[in-house]
């Protein structure tokens, strides 16, 4: 008789046949940095996640380093916004200052930057507005300026998240031209127009003041379209393809894993974090176990890298288990 239970009888055999493993090395931790001084403000809908000003950031960076987390992705909250988000390519901007600070004092931390405009535009959209919609090609020009400015400040990787057509080609060409041919691009290639971004928009002050992002982000109903997005970005030179959000899109992560031979990342977004935190606080679920189970499902679906607000908690938990 077939007895699949034979290989489940003890912890020893279960770990010998375990197919997937979550490691701290898989994780990228998002950090929100706000212009100003003395700021450490918890984000209401994301318990345990804070906005920091640069002077207080070492507190967070020390913890990250101590826990063995190797990579961060930076989001900036600037002092001033305008119609086009020109602060994004200011060499004295919050992100540029933060990159220089981290690379100087914490050179081993791998610094990825989110390259977009929504935190920097007065209207909250991911580019320049013409006729009530984001103008794709006008936005591309400014995207290059932003990425080059991040690269000059010392970023290790750039991650364009605005879902503009041609953004990877444009960035690859302009980065190469400036000599940054070794700088990898992680594309938010398959980013859905999702309601799971709600808490992030509070965290980063980036909610659109009119309309929504459905003219540039993907329709949650679509699967085949994900291949078109991924095809274009890979062909244009993306080094890593990302799927976002993660939990409701595990099928898409698997699709990309099966069809591309470059690393696949996923973004375990703010709403996914908030739901587990909220249910955990109420005592309705075992928060830590559900956290580990959902992150493991992303690995099982085929993700190599996971961007997650849970990174510190996972690192602590994995350390206790050893
Ligand atoms: C900005 C951006 C968003 C997220 C990452 N980069 C939000 C959006 O598209 O509105 C979402 C992250 C999260 O929800 O955790 N382009
Ligand atoms: Zn954006």
Descriptive account of the structure:
It is a single chain. By secondary structure, the protein is α/β, with parallel strands linked by helices. It contains eleven helices and twelve strands. The strands form two sheets. Strands 1, 2, 3, 4, 5, 8, 9, 10, 11 and 12 form a ten-stranded mixed sheet that branches. Helix 3 packs parallel to helix 4, helix 4 crosses helix 5 and helix 9 runs antiparallel to helix 10. The model has no long low-confidence stretch (mean pLDDT 97). The chain binds ligand PBG and zinc ion. The site of zinc ion has 6 residues, from loops.
Percent of residues in beta strands? 15-25%
- How many extended strands? 12
Count of folded domains: 1
N to C succession of SSEs: HEEEHEHEEEHEHEHHEHEHHEH
If you consult CATH, what is the topology?
Answer: TIM Barrel
Largest sheet: 10 strands, mixed
CATH superfamily: Aldolase class I
Compute the separation of the termini in Å: 37 Å
The CATH class, by name, is Alpha Beta
Structural shape: globular
The CATH architecture would be Alpha-Beta Barrel
List its salient traits.
TIM Barrel, two-stranded antiparallel sheet, globular, binds zinc ion
Secondary structure layout:
Layout lengths: L10 H6 L10 E8 L5 E3 L7 E4 L3 H10 L4 E7 L16 H12 L4 E6 L13 E2 L2 E2 L1 H18 L3 E4 L6 H11 L8 E6 L6 H7 L19 H12 L4 E5 L5 H10 L4 E5 L1 H12 L5 H15 L3 E4 L2 H11 L1
Parallel strand pairs: 1-3, 1-4, 1-12, 4-5, 5-8, 9-10, 10-11, 11-12
Antiparallel strand pairs: 2-3, 6-7
Ligand PBG binds next to helix 6.
